[in-house]
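Inputs:
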Amino acid sequence: MPDTSLLEFFDSPSDTPFLIEHVNEEFTSVCPKTGHPDFGTITLRYQPAAVCVELKSLKMYFQSFRNEGIFYEAVTNQIRDDLAATMSPDWLQVITDWKGRGGIRSRITAEHGDVPLHR
Amino acid sequence: MPDTSLLEFFDSPSDTPFLIEHVNEEFTSVCPKTGHPDFGTITLRYQPAAVCVELKSLKMYFQSFRNEGIFYEAVTNQIRDDLAATMSPDWLQVITDWKGRGGIRSRITAEHGDVPLHR
Amino acid sequence: MPDTSLLEFFDSPSDTPFLIEHVNEEFTSVCPKTGHPDFGTITLRYQPAAVCVELKSLKMYFQSFRNEGIFYEAVTNQIRDDLAATMSPDWLQVITDWKGRGGIRSRITAEHGDVPLHR
Amino acid sequence: MPDTSLLEFFDSPSDTPFLIEHVNEEFTSVCPKTGHPDFGTITLRYQPAAVCVELKSLKMYFQSFRNEGIFYEAVTNQIRDDLAATMSPDWLQVITDWKGRGGIRSRITAEHGDVPLHR
Amino acid sequence: MPDTSLLEFFDSPSDTPFLIEHVNEEFTSVCPKTGHPDFGTITLRYQPAAVCVELKSLKMYFQSFRNEGIFYEAVTNQIRDDLAATMSPDWLQVITDWKGRGGIRSRITAEHGDVPLHR
Amino acid sequence: MPDTSLLEFFDSPSDTPFLIEHVNEEFTSVCPKTGHPDFGTITLRYQPAAVCVELKSLKMYFQSFRNEGIFYEAVTNQIRDDLAATMSPDWLQVITDWKGRGGIRSRITAEHGDVPLHR
Amino acid sequence: MPDTSLLEFFDSPSDTPFLIEHVNEEFTSVCPKTGHPDFGTITLRYQPAAVCVELKSLKMYFQSFRNEGIFYEAVTNQIRDDLAATMSPDWLQVITDWKGRGGIRSRITAEHGDVPLHR
Amino acid sequence: MPDTSLLEFFDSPSDTPFLIEHVNEEFTSVCPKTGHPDFGTITLRYQPAAVCVELKSLKMYFQSFRNEGIFYEAVTNQIRDDLAATMSPDWLQVITDWKGRGGIRSRITAEHGDVPLHR
Amino acid sequence: MPDTSLLEFFDSPSDTPFLIEHVNEEFTSVCPKTGHPDFGTITLRYQPAAVCVELKSLKMYFQSFRNEGIFYEAVTNQIRDDLAATMSPDWLQVITDWKGRGGIRSRITAEHGDVPLHR
Amino acid sequence: MPDTSLLEFFDSPSDTPFLIEHVNEEFTSVCPKTGHPDFGTITLRYQPAAVCVELKSLKMYFQSFRNEGIFYEAVTNQIRDDLAATMSPDWLQVITDWKGRGGIRSRITAEHGDVPLHR
């Protein structure tokens, strides 16, 4: 079950705004309709305000979706909401790319905050 | 025959604007001039207002063009019009990429609504 | 319905053995179990004995599978049998590559006659 | 000899602005200086006003350059001028990409009308 | 838990030897040492004797490894053994390609029976 | 019109057998059935006996097919025969790869002499 | 230990603003948490004011991180700060791309100064 | 020795602004520090005012750098200055991409004039 | 310093011969002549006799070369000798691919035992 | 002028046969007919007998062809002869790949000694 208590944070190493991108090509959850597993890539981009997310804790958080029945659109919005609430970043973007189902592949994009000038 | 009654919708999981993209690499219709089959890729991108299109119903709608005699430009505009009318999205874009005919390959792009800030 | 009467042939332009390969990336038939369309690429390789298959007639023969309900393995063996019977080539190979279904993509290979030395 | 009388047109299927792109990877003309053939790819992009160019007639028009002695820059401007004059589109762009000569490959880009918002 | 009772078979459509390849890019199991998920691609190639494996049942069999703690080398040999025992093919090959762990990616290859002449 | 008198040769620089490959990606001839141009890549590989073909003369020979109406299979066998007759090489192979027509692309392979050990 | 005294500079060869990009695909440092080596690519882009960094000295500076225990985010900000302090460029951007750890690959981007018009 | 007298020009075939790009992947000069050869790709883009540079003369001009000892940054600025002075174009951009030295590859970009609207 | 005591082994899970390949794209050692770091990819392929090498211990063994001054040819032969001595495999192959130095990239291949039939 | 006195050798680090490959993508010489520079990639593969060629000396030897007027076929045979004479390897292969001239690119392959079993 998705679990934000797995997330850990550390203080940003700079007061100058900068950007961080983490790409997880090994995401899997379960389709609530068919019960079959879904496979996707999660791209997280953000401009930290005060804290950064620790990489291994982020991996554990993503793994907590493994046996969760949840739609593409809901996964994407939940990750955006969870990370926006726990990190309060200046800007955050979550992109999920899903392998094809019935010949159709999908990408969902959700954002939080104003797009930074330097992106 | 293209049939919008095949389309099903579900409520958008978030009030915050976000983007959805579905790519169908297995689209086929028939050239009304030569009777030969055409093969293409349909890319649908939209920002939902109140509802999202259900993925399997979208696939069935695309399959309803299989034995329809229709030109590239008309397919693209019809899909844009059908989805805009049934979903009323904030923004919607349809891109069709067609395999080569006589050494020429083609792409048609149609849009509905204002381009979202976050695209 | 698959129809070998569509096939036309012309005399081989040389008595010296040589090889011919035709690749059709626009093959489609229908899954007899689910009724959903299948999409694949057909690769035909052969060493002609007395005749070669005419290209446009080969295309029409492949198109005659469009609305046929037939499994991957059966398509491949039928094309091998049809072309071996009508052309009597020294050697013939049919390879079918099918787009993914349920996350699994497939390739079937069938041959007729002895592999030529020069392949 | 380049011949615009080969071009045929059909009425645009929509009043909503949309974009069309045709890519011909099989263009050839002759260098007027050396007499050697030149090989290139022509990309045509436009937003139709009232009419669209018919695909097979466009192919015949491109083929009419086959034995014409003409420089890269002149080919590109002539295609732009010919199509702007016969179609009166809202916007039109012609890009020609030429295979290397003496280790140098080239691209020429010519436009007509204002760049559309939705490009 | 890996479960061969999920596998279903159908009669081979031809007495002439031919080859079948199924590639599953969405395989996941669990590392028995760390508890972290492993992700890989399973390639199955075989020459059927009397029966072929049905595609959807193969998918269900592969999914039965999802929460199993098992090493790369053991997964590969178990799939080889399970399929050889249930299908008795003339020849069978299982190749597993695993995403990197600690900067090292791995491939394991196991075979059953004599390599066919036509491979 | 294909013209072998354009070909020039020079003495092989070594008595030790070696291999030469020339790839011409800019070949064009005309389909004798439709009158439309065909575009292909010609790969010539050979082990010289006494002489090698001069590169610019080879280019002029290939260009002499430009406005010739001739089928794929005939082009390939004629180039094989012309070069075998004029160079008397130990071994020679001609491979022609043709761009798609009607969704089908083709490759024709013709050889002369015994395959060299070192190929 | 990172050492800016290794850096050498030379006078910019032009008063007209221009851009310089150096990409080092062979960067390695050490994870301070696990002690395992990290591998990345460093992209440095800048618009020089008065001086440019000498290429071999830049390489030596990058090598001085080889056995340093330091996080991704800190490496990126330190390089930005070191080069901004020693070169006083009009604009400078540092992008670090890190190979996957636990299935997640990362990119960090830090900038100094106003983005130039001509980028 | 770089020699602008090798450059020849011809009148622009159109009064409507258009863009020209020439890419030379076979540039070589010599490092003035080590005496070793440098290898790069030169991309020249410009919007002609009254004249265009003739392609073969441009090649000869680039070849005149072959045995010149000159740094990356100086090559790029000299080509920009030479071509701006002799052609007086509306806009001109020179990008040089250099193969790796000591594991670092480089790109230098210099411009002249205002960026055209249609780029 | 290269240290075989870091290597750990486990019993092969099958008596039927099978093949294992591990690819480490993050290998680094030091050039004994210049003192500069070398970067390479190590590919290890083997057919186990009684034991397999444990993946994390293999990674630690590879990391023990990090600050060792050693030539390409010597690294390759040492890894072959170390693993052949400690695992006594039926067959073993080590391939090292090194990033370019002075514009020349290198690959060294060393083997132990007879090439297996099924490779 | 090609100069074998630049070549240096070191004792092979192993009595067990192994293979070495060096790829130089930065080779240039001059066409003796036109005076224009030729650009190519030289691949050297060999199984050492007693000695290996030192990498930097090999680079200097390759650079000694820079301003030499020499045909593709002659370059390849000369490098084969020079290295066979100075190293006396068990086996040696030289492959030269030349960038296109007049739309034709070329590859020349020369060997010395018997092909090793393990290649």
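The helical segments of chain I are 55-63, 72-87. Flag for discussion at group meeting.
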